[in-house]
Predict the 3D structure of the following.
Amino acid sequence: MTFRIHTVSSITRTKPRIEKLEQIYSAVQSGQLPPALAGLRDSVQVIKSAGDKIDYEADLAKALADAGLVNECLPEVLSTKQDFFKKAAPFITKEIVVATNNSSLLPSQMTPDVSYPENFLAMHFANMIWQENLCEIMPSMLTAPGTTEKAKDYALKMGMCPIVMNKEHAGYLLNSLLIPFLNVA
């Protein structure tokens, strides 16, 4: 797995965060965290070895080389995401599934900026994925059915529970349920 980071200083900020997560997971193993996180105990060895499999790369071409899935996780600002897809376009091949990770923007808002709209969709991961391992998958009308299946397979391989949405909907499923709940509470 390669994290494409915008600047070298971003790499300097990201590595300690990943290391902190490793410390948290180690604390789970030793019983120092709340019971709600106890399910992580079984995954500690996998989690510890995961950090060794992460590469940090500032060069976009190198970060995308040999990728099977490119999952963009920039802030939910349409112009920021569009800019990324335009910059990534020369390095995206027809075999790569390209996903945006967001909970409010629709994939169709970004399809004009991606190399292969048929290989593009949204994959939104719920907060606290170690506890709520949901992944909302939202294709656009241009997304090929095979791309949706590949995204679902990727999610399953990551230990996620994929929810495939049949049509685009702002707010996706989780936020469509959460926001009214928060407004009433």
About this structure: The first helix runs from residue 8 to 29. The mean pLDDT is 83.
